[in-house]
Amino acid sequence: MPAAPLISVRDLSKHFRTFKRREGVWGAIRNLVKRDYQSVHAVDRVTFDIQPGEMVGYIGPNGAGKSTTIKMLTGILVPTAGELLSNGFVPWKQRRQYVKSIGVVFGQRTQLWWDIAVVESFKLLRKIYDVSQHDYDARMELFNHVLKLKDYLDTPVRKLSLGERMRCDLAAALLHNPPILFLDEPTIGLDVVAKDHIRQFLKEINQRYRTTVLLTTHDLDDIEELCKRIMIIDHGRLLYDGPLALLKQKLLRTKQVKFVVKDSEQAARLPALENDGLKIEPVDHLTYRIVFDRTKISVADLLRQILAEVEVRDLLIEDEPIEEIVKRIYAGEALKEVTA
Known about the structure:
Blueprint: E1 7-19, H1 24-33, E2 37-50, E3 55-59, H2 66-73, E4 81-86, H3 95-98, E5 102-106, H4 118-128, H5 133-147, H6 162-173, E6 180-184, H7 192-209, E7 212-216, H8 220-226, E8 229-234, E9 237-243, H9 244-251, E10 254-261, H10 264-267, E11 280-282, E12 287-293, H11 299-309, E13 312-319, H12 322-330, H13 336-339
Parallel strand pairs: 3-7, 3-8, 5-6, 6-7
Antiparallel strand pairs: 1-2, 1-4, 8-9, 10-12, 10-13, 11-12
Helix pairs in contact: 6-7
């Protein structure tokens, strides 16, 4: 018998009533007298389950409904319709009890006190969440080890860089060891090193405590690093919910082979490979790339052709970037072949 989902969502919807603003002075005057209202379906009958310990990527273009969904899941917004049960709670009805069992990080907002040292914020949160001194010390040791917090624990939050503050916000959200962590754009604006620290930390927390993570992001490297499952939302509707590997397998149109030939004499022999629509692109004087349609030629056949023609010092096979797949989905490409 399968385990009960930690988060269960059924036909969840959120509609906002807005009015159309008329332009100009006379338009503003008419707006005072009569307003034309319209209903915006920010989230429209979304259904999914998330099991304990899962790390799920939730992606979509701006205005797709990602943040609205997160706000309903955390109890900030009340749905227009539908059912939602998270860790045994209805978030907007039992918010006081519910928030003690979740962690939340919004990329552009902080839950730390702006003018006091980071460690003082942590101590206050320990009291608020009633975390024992033993558990607090153990978690701070882990946070220091993975996130390297020790160097700026005594620094006021307002003096931290964005990357340093984000690490502290993650630690604060997980100080009480919640079973669920909601992340809304946690790596936005961060450099490569800061992003890597955060990804490694999330992996560690998930493996050690089986923390369930729902992650919204525009950085698809976050998804590929952390999530085996992906949900894609656009215009409030869920377009895809399933394994990331299946999405890539079904919708990958191209692969590329990048290889380094032995010398310039070998490079001169490469034009012989340009047949059946294959085109060789130079990367540098000895490195070349072939982008090919995997439905027309297999990787094995292409490698045999390359190795039969030239001597190769190094070779790398890469998939089409996931960004290209997602762009095609946003542009309206059918997902029937994925779900078939």
